[in-house]
């Protein structure tokens, strides 16, 4: 992919780090430790730069898949069921 041209790591590693940071809200240093456990030595400042560069692009590309929920109303009714004459 041309988005990862001239990068030291493969695109899958970069996207995985960005996704984990955005989804789980872990710190860059914790993510650095996680990657070291997986055999990738990545500095926390590199992770910061990846998130700053790739997170907006990921959000822009994924926005197309989001289904809008504006204008729809959600209602939930409470119900109960009697089992042998007693509410359950």
Keywords:
two-stranded antiparallel ribbon, 2 strands, 88 residues
Model description:
InterPro entries: IS_Transposase (IPR052183). This is Transposase. This protein is mostly helical. The protein has one domain (2-65). The protein has helices spanning 11-24, 28-37, 44-62, and strands spanning 82-83, 86-87. A two-stranded antiparallel sheet has the order 1-2. A hairpin with a 2-residue loop joins strand 1 and strand 2 (86-87). Helix 1 (11-24) packs across helix 3 and helix 2 (28-37) packs across helix 3 (44-62). The longest helix has 19 residues, at 44-62. The chain starts with 10 loop residues before the first helix and ends with a strand. The model has no long low-confidence stretch (mean pLDDT 80).
Average pLDDT over all residues: 80
Order of helices and strands: HHHEE
**Rg over C-alpha atoms, rounded to the nearest angstrom:** 22 Å
Total of domains: 1
Q: Can you count the helices?
A: 3
Kindly report the spatial arrangement of strands forming the biggest sheet. Answer: 1-2
Helix content: 40-55%
Quaternary status: single chain
Number of strands: 2
What class, by secondary structure content? mainly alpha
- Are there runs of 5+ residues with pLDDT below 50, and where? none
Q: What is the overall silhouette?
A: elongated
The end-to-end span amounts to: 57 Å
Task: Report the biggest beta sheet as strand number plus sense, adding barrel if it closes.
Answer: 2 strands, antiparallel
Strand content: under 5%
Protein name: Transposase
InterPro entries: IS_Transposase (IPR052183)
